[in-house]
C-alpha cells in the first residue's frame, strides 16, 4: 500500500516534509517524471493512503515558468495565510478525462491530459 504524508509550511521559511514508504515515494517519482514529459499546464494523479488507511489522490501539477507567483501561498498558519482572493487554488480546478478543466469558481481551461479523471457530477456542491 502506498502510504504518504505531506506536511506543509506553517510560515515562510518553515520546513516542509514528504514522508512515505518506498512504494509511495517511488510512485511519486514516476508521477513527477510523467508530468515532465508534457508542456505546462499538465497534471498527473496518484492514489495514496495516509497512515490510518484513508485514501486520497495526490496531484502533481506542472505550471509554466513564471506562473508560481499567481498560485495561493501554501502556508497554513493564520498569521501567514495568503490574503489574495484571486490567487490560483489547486483544488478549485478538476480535470475531465479529455483534459478540460472544470473550474468550480466559474471558468473552464485546458489541461494536458496525462492521467484522466472523471468530470465532477453536475450536482456536486461548491466548496466554500
Q: What would you note in describing this structure?
A:
- This protein has 128 residues and is mostly beta strands.
- The protein has a domain of 82 residues.
- It is built from one helix and eight strands; from the N terminus they run E-E-H-E-E-E-E-E-E.
- The strands form three sheets. It has a three-stranded mixed β-sheet with strand order 4-3-8, with helices on one face.
- The protein is globular.
- The termini are far apart.
- About 19% of the residues have low confidence.
Give a topology summary:
Elements: E1 4-7, E2 17-20, H1 22-35, E3 42-49, E4 55-62, E5 93-95, E6 100-103, E7 108-110, E8 112-113
**What portion of residues belong to β-strands?**
25-35%
Question: How many strand units?
Answer: 8
Shape: globular
Widest sheet, order of strands: 4-3-8
What is the mean predicted local confidence, pLDDT? 80
Tell me about the largest β-sheet. 3 strands, mixed
DSSP summary: helix tally? 1
Task: Give the structure's gist in a few sentences.
The chain has 128 residues and is mostly beta strands. The chain has one helix at residues 22-35, and strands at residues 4-7, 17-20, 42-49, 55-62, 93-95, 100-103, 108-110, 112-113.
Amino acid at each position: 500500500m502506498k502510504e504518504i504524508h505531506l506536511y506543509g509550511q506553517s510560515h515562510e521559511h518553515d520546513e516542509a516534509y514528504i514522508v512515505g514508504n518506498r512504494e509511495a515515494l517511488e510512485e511519486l517519482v514516476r508521477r513527477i517524471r510523467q508530468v515532465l514529459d508534457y508542456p505546462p499546464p499538465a497534471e498527473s494523479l496518484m492514489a495514496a493512503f495516509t497512515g490510518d488507511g484513508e485514501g486520497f489522490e495526490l496531484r502533481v501539477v506542472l505550471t509554466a515558468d513564471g506562473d508560481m507567483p499567481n498560485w495561493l501561498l501554501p502556508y497554513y498558519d493564520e498569521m501567514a495565510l495568503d490574503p489574495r482572493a484571486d490567487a490560483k487554488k489547486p483544488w478549485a480546478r478538476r480535470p475531465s478525462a479529455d483534459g478540460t478543466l472544470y473550474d468550480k469558481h466559474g471558468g473552464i481551461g485546458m489541461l494536458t491530459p496525462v492521467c484522466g479523471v472523471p468530470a465532477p457530477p453536475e450536482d456536486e456542491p461548491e466548496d466554500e
